[in-house]
Amino acid sequence: MTSRVLRMIAVTCWLALALGCLPKPVPYSVRKGDDYFQKGDYESALKRYQEAAKSGSTPLIEGRIAKARGKLVELALVDAEQALTAGKLDAAMAMVAAIHARFPAQPEVRAFATRHQQRWLDEADRHRGAGRPGRAFVLARRAAAVLTSDALAKAQAGHGAAWADALAKALAGAPGPATQVLLQAAQAVATQRPAPWQEARRAREALVAQQRLAVTVEGKGVAAAVKAAVDGDPRFASGAGAGREKVVARVTIGALTGKTDVTRRTERQQVEQGTHQVPNPNHAAILDEIAAIESDIAFQQDNIASSTDPAYVEATRYQISGMQDDLADRRAELAQTPPTLSEPAYVDVDYQVETHRLIASRPVTVEVRFASGGAAITRTETIRVERTDEAHAANPRLGLAADRVELPAPQALTGDLDQATARWFATVLDEAHAAYRQRLLAGARDRREGLALYLLLAPAPIEAALDTELSDALDIPEPSHLAAKLSAGRPDEVYVVAATATATPGTPTPGAGTKPTPGAGTKPTAGAGTRPTAGAGTRPTTGVGTKPPAGPASPPDPDAAMRSHGGYALKLTAFSFSNGGKERLRVDRDGKLYSRGRHVGTWNTDGTFVASGRIALAIDRQGRIWFNERAPVERGKLTKSDVTFTAGATIDFDSTGHVVAIAGGKRRTSAEVIAPASAAGQPVALLSAYLGMGVLTLR
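Structure (tokenized):
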């Protein structure tokens, strides 16, 4: 995320303070976790408590961790119960398996599964009787992962054998190579045999290599780092390499320009200057001791005067004599102790510090054309890199030597610009590969084979409707989940937990470490029990074994974690926010977002917002909004009509196109109005208004 976008997000102070959806980067405290807990955000509360435990666990912290975990389990089981009530037994078991994988020591989860064990068994039998042994096996397997039960173990084995037989018959029908890979992988899962699994993995790798997209990079002065983006990705073949389809990526790089911004601040240090007198604590302590001894002597003398016991009087006089000796010693010590002491005196000295920020930039345009024709993909971005250095003048009074500016010439940052350009260029290649997969699917004679190839060419979940279609055609539950594990995983990891906690059968959503690719523009619709409510307790959790490590089919990608949270189908339309003819925000038809005339980032149709080649924000297929804060962090939910933040606040448009923010019962309206107010582009408009809220005028 560039500093420009960071500033845009930072200036939305009304969101950070009034809405509370963007927590301040303050050090962790148990109190902060308690604040989240009180708001019902048990996920964030647990995270804060666990961070505190790393510095030293205490019974207090452990108790809070247990309480937050209990709340998350409670909410997950409520969702599962609702799914059961709606007749979605597969989805309910997926939720139970996911929360069990996350918190295996929670007895409530096993107790819930035990109560409904017969329902899982009956539902699995129903699937098998309806000719869906694959779904029967998955349901029994997930139930067996939560419970240790002879009945479930037998059910898993029986349904697995039936599914393996059905898959063997399908394989005997000589399916296409992509379909064969999926059937063979599913058979390995059903029989728990590693040999067919490894064979399916090798077949997939060969298929991907055979179907590589041949990319020729052209353009004057194109750096090696940009071309390496092709060579380092197994999805592509450079130059005129093998591939069913060939494309030419023409890269046009503009002139490098550099500018330096200077900001100034005042620093302060203390300097010793003379001395001053302060009370001597020893002198005061001796005075206190003298006063105490004198008081004791007076008290004992009063006792002597009132006593008629000669022995007591004699003993008391002896005590008084000792006290008087102590008193004489203290008075002599007082005479030798000065009442004040000299201490150094300090004064504040200010000095000026300058921060010099060198920004080197150049415009880059990429045009990708397919050899077979069709519309070209054209993207333009201004790539920026920067260096900073601080300087100040000499200050003999502070003992500071002069610190002069040491910044390179803008041309010295050419290598860094090349690397940044390569990262951005990789995102354009992603679009080209997505379009290539769409072409293969559209041109496939066998729809089933086309869907299988479409899935296997990218280690990512495909659109929910296509995933369901392929699942129904092959009786392979959640084929996207199976393919993701096939790229890097073992057969015993498949279907142990759900791809997501709230997925309905056959409609997985992106999991960690996968890279969704824009598809045919289909957008899944949330079914009963699939929409997470405010607070972290209902957010689906990726279970054990669902994150494929980087492998031959997973090229290195610094934005992989964020990209995996994309997938929302955005419609890009041009619009602007203006007030009195003065434009504040604008998005063009290519998704480029401008703030007061300056390009700050670009919206993509897969629900990602990219700035200088890095993904700053992503919206997944359920509409959840994720920010790149070193790791993806969920901050809100996008619907067709509004954006709802995790703290419960909302942002939407009124009937006249003004931005309306509601938080804590307070309603604020922007002075700016959106035009044209396109219903199709409203999601992008809502998100753009959120990112640029600090630029708009709220009343």
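Residues 1-28, 499-558 have pLDDT under 50 and may be disordered. The first helix runs from residue 3 to 10.
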